[in-house]
Design brief:
3 helices, alpha+beta, about 150 residues, elongated
């Protein structure tokens, strides 16, 4: 390579290096200049009153109660149809396709008191609103159907 070409090549490199240094310096200095120019200030910030929010209507609580009633009926049906002798202490799973809830029935025992046949149980309820544990008692009515005597959350 000739001396002229070598001189031109090294001069071009120094021009490129000089331009890169200037660009880096400008990139660092520009944000600092913006901060010093009186940009955003928390003391000057104001609340945006144009945004309005509200709570959900109170009628939304009614479906949750009806879902729980529907789940209580499903649990009662599972308790009344369970064969306690065959279960041998195992849990009885239940699910309600209408509400999407599910759970398990445990501690299922049958008691006979004064000619009245009842079944006591514990049940879990897993739904979109959380997991809950219930205690209940289902008794055989005179007409041959089962009736929920007690069903309360723990």
């Amino acid at each position: 390579m000739s001396r002229i070409a070598q001189a031109f090549d090294s001069g071009q490199r120094s021009v490129i290096a000089s331009a890169s240094a200037k660009a880096a310096l400008l990139t660092l200095a520009l944000p600092l200049a913006a901060c010093g120019a009186g940009g955003f200030s928390l003391q000057k910030a104001e609340v945006d009153r144009s945004i309005i929010t509200a709570s959900a209507p109170s009628s939304s609580a009614a479906p949750a109660a009806s879902d729980q009633d529907s789940d209580q009926t499903t649990i009662g049906n599972a308790v009344s149809s369970a064969d306690i002798k065959e279960l041998g202490g195992q849990t009885v799973p239940w699910a309600n396709a209408g509400t999407g809830s599910r759970g398990a029935i445990t501690e299922l025992v049958e008691l006979k008191d004064g000619g009245l046949t009842c079944r006591r149980f514990s049940a879990t309820r897993e739904s979109f609103d959380g997991v809950a544990l219930y205690k209940g008692e289902l008794c055989l009515a005179e007409a041959g159907g089962w009736r929920m005597q007690e069903f309360k959350p723990l």
